[in-house]
Specification:
single chain, alpha/beta, six-stranded mixed sheet, 13 helices, 6 strands, elongated
Length: 283
């Protein structure tokens, strides 16, 4: 397969998982190349996500590496077989690569968790709220770039509205629901949108109320995308220097624990809807 100019996050993840399998097997890159009848450069390109690999060849690689985790092999083979560009590719060159990588990640996720304390999660935002948040960026975005980001965020909601929607759970602090990032009317519409989505069988919205005592997990804001197998889960975190994709098993375990702790501090879905209703009436 021809060498790619740039690998997506998912392509890099596939290559990284193959590298992990090779390293666990104690096989050097040149030894892997000999087993596959190729050269070390090709193995390096596959492991960097810069060269594709067929499903059949991936299974041969896994067999050479003595991988007995058949579910993982099947999941990696499915990743290797993906050839159709996603809708997000229409934004390549127009938006930061991290936007596209997030779209790709959540499109393929088996389930999705969001934890947010200051803003309503992006998948549940209205256009007005998304526009207000993007407008706060420093330096300011040109109008065309601003609208592209809003459009992209709205298009990402497809995972919740498609024929077989992604299972989704959002843990949102009451502070995020009270934050007036735009007008009072926009805030009312945002709460109405939350209520609308919370009625869907595949969506769960839980609110952490101000009254909760001993709540200290405000540093656990994250996007958690569940893979076909737990080893392929990914956490996405926004920081001052950009977006970070986390996939080490040790760190994933930490974030799963964070999610369970925050969830334990949140209200069940029905009381959460009642609180959202109450806040809406106060506006």
């Amino acid at each position: 397969m021809p060498r790619r100019q740039q690998a997506t996050a998912r392509q890099r993840r596939l290559g990284a998982e193959l590298r992990k399998l090779r390293e666990v097997a104690g096989i050097k890159g040149r030894e892997a190349a000999a087993l596959l009848g190729t050269d070390s450069a090709q193995v390096s390109q596959i492991e960097a996500g810069l060269a594709g690999v067929s499903e059949a060849r991936l299974r041969r690689i896994a067999a050479h590496y003595n991988c007995t985790d058949q579910q993982l092999v099947d999941a990696l083979a499915a990743m290797a077989g993906e050839r159709t560009p996603g809708w997000w590719e229409g934004y390549r060159g127009l938006l930061p690569t991290s936007f596209l990588d997030l779209s790709e990640l959540e499109h393929h996720a088996d389930y999705r968790w969001d934890v947010d304390f200051l803003h309503v999660p992006g998948l549940l935002q209205t256009e007005d709220i998304a526009r207000a948040l993007f407008s706060s960026r420093v330096p300011e975005l040109p109008e065309a770039d601003l609208e592209l980001r809003v459009q992209h965020r709205m298009q990402r909601r497809a995972i919740l509205t498609k024929e077989q929607p992604t299972r989704y759970e959002a843990l949102v602090h009451e502070a995020a629901l009270r934050m007036m990032v735009s007008s009072r009317a926009a805030a009312r519409n945002q709460l109405a949108r939350l209520l609308e989505f919370s009625e869907a069988s595949h969506v769960t919205v839980r609110v952490i109320p101000f009254e909760r005592e001993h709540f200290v997990d405000v540093g656990a804001a994250m996007v958690y995308a569940g893979g076909a197998v737990p080893k392929l889960d990914t956490v996405v975190r926004d920081g001052p220097h950009g977006t970070v994709f986390v996939d080490s098993e040790a760190q994933l375990s930490v974030f799963r624990t964070h999610f369970r702790r925050v969830k334990a501090m949140s209200c069940d879905p029905a009381p959460s809807r009642d609180l959202i209703h109450k806040l809406s009436k106060e506006l």
